[in-house]
From TrEMBL:
<dbReference type="InterPro" id="IPR036388">
    <property type="entry name" value="WH-like_DNA-bd_sf"/>
</dbReference>
<dbReference type="GO" id="GO:0010288">
    <property type="term" value="P:response to lead ion"/>
</dbReference>
<dbReference type="InterPro" id="IPR001845">
    <property type="entry name" value="HTH_ArsR_DNA-bd_dom"/>
</dbReference>
<protein>
    <submittedName>
        <fullName>ArsR family transcriptional regulator</fullName>
    </submittedName>
</protein>
<dbReference type="InterPro" id="IPR052543">
    <property type="entry name" value="HTH_Metal-responsive_Reg"/>
</dbReference>
<feature type="domain" description="HTH arsR-type">
    <location>
        <begin position="4"/>
        <end position="100"/>
    </location>
</feature>
<dbReference type="GO" id="GO:0003677">
    <property type="term" value="F:DNA binding"/>
</dbReference>
<dbReference type="Pfam" id="PF01022">
    <property type="entry name" value="HTH_5"/>
</dbReference>
<dbReference type="GO" id="GO:0046686">
    <property type="term" value="P:response to cadmium ion"/>
</dbReference>
<dbReference type="GO" id="GO:0003700">
    <property type="term" value="F:DNA-binding transcription factor activity"/>
</dbReference>
<dbReference type="GO" id="GO:0097063">
    <property type="term" value="F:cadmium ion sensor activity"/>
</dbReference>
<dbReference type="GO" id="GO:0032791">
    <property type="term" value="F:lead ion binding"/>
</dbReference>
<dbReference type="InterPro" id="IPR011991">
    <property type="entry name" value="ArsR-like_HTH"/>
</dbReference>
<dbReference type="InterPro" id="IPR036390">
    <property type="entry name" value="WH_DNA-bd_sf"/>
</dbReference>
Length: 111
């Protein structure tokens, strides 16, 4: 059983990972299916270098894993429950306040 402090650290790590829109897009894309980096970069319209940095962040957070496939590497969510968590989080936030943009909160640095 996790302590409260450990639970807070885990949630904060998840929040930091999702704080960037590109990492959110990556997590949502990988929720649908595992992908190779080249396809992910094309899909998100970003450079492979930029993608690599974001994938490294998600790997370091323990949210995605790199799976060797021959000479290539495929990325996938570290646990299928993360996909369900993303779905639940997205629908819960949308249900509570779908029209919020966090413009004022962003100015204060809290979002």
């Amino acid at each position: 059983m996790l302590t409260l402090a450990t639970e807070v650290q885990v949630l904060a790590r998840f929040g930091r990972a999702l704080a960037d829109p590109i990492r959110c897009q990556l997590m949502l894309a990988l929720r649908e299916s595992p992908e190779h980096p080249a396809h992910l970069a094309d899909r998100l319209g970003i450079s492979r270098t930029r993608l690599s940095n974001h994938l490294a962040c998600l790997r370091d957070c323990g949210l995605v894993v790199a799976v060797p496939v021959g000479r290539r590497t495929r990325y996938e969510l570290a646990d299928p429950r993360l996909g369900h968590a993303l779905d639940n989080l997205r629908t819960a936030i949308t249900a509570v306040e779908a029209d919020r943009t966090c413009v004022e909160a962003d100015k204060r640095g809290c979002c």
